[in-house]
Design brief:
nuclease; alpha+beta; 6 helices; Uma2 family endonuclease; globular; six-stranded mixed β-sheet
């Protein structure tokens, strides 16, 4: 989800103390706290599907799957974000009470109003996380997943997974999250997700 234009200026310490008292979540970037906007039902369904699939796969492997209300801190002074889904296999995070700091996989579900932010500034900030190995973008309007994976040369490589129902259907497209060696069909990610009708150009 995207932070809205409703924002407040404060220090990182002030933000962390203030955020605990708020009814709604706020992200924190460049000294500003941004109120989070709501998502759509497809957005929510995709996050639930991904969390369910990953939790089942990772059970007993010493990793933790967290979603929407789990705050990620890039440092003690921020930025602080709320990704849609994340996986951490670091003992420091598994036992953490307030925020995640060492994720290996972060997933954001895209919406028209959030896509530029998720692809741009947010990904730029996430790349500062030394433990992050994979950043995944899931489209909530059409069936498609893009995975940015950190390779052995420390470069981010894109692998895209799309189905067009003509050349490849969603059942035959296998999505691979290399950071945790997880595979599933594109259809499983979009199971029972009601995507909006395509917009006419």
């Amino acid at each position: 989800m995207l932070a809205s234009t409703d924002r407040l200026f404060m220090s990182a310490d002030e933000y962390l103390a203030w955020e605990e008292q708020q009814a709604f979540r706020h992200e924190y970037l460049h000294g500003e706290a941004y109120a989070m906007t709501g998502g759509t039902l497809p957005h929510n369904d995709l996050a639930v599907n991904l969390t369910t699939l990953l939790k089942s796969y990772l059970k007993g492997r010493g990793c933790k799957v967290r979603m929407a209300d789990a705050k990620v801190g890039l440092s003690e002074s921020g930025p602080f974000f709320y990704p849609d889904v994340l996986v951490t296999c670091d003992d420091r995070d598994v036992k953490a009470k307030t925020m995640v700091q060492y994720p290996c996989l972060i997933i954001e579900v895209l919406l028209p109003g959030t896509e530029g932010y998720d692809r741009g500034e947010k990904f730029r900030q996430y790349r500062r996380l030394e433990t992050l190995k994979e950043y995944v973008l899931v489209n909530a309007e059409t069936m498609g997943v893009e995975s940015f994976q950190l390779n052995s040369q420390n470069k981010w490589e894109l692998t895209a997974y799309f189905a067009d129902d003509i050349i490849q259907d969603a059942e035959s497209v296998l999505v691979h999250f290399t950071s945790i060696d997880f595979q599933c069909s594109l259809a499983a990610i979009y199971d029972e997700v009601e995507l909006p009708e395509p917009r006419l150009s």
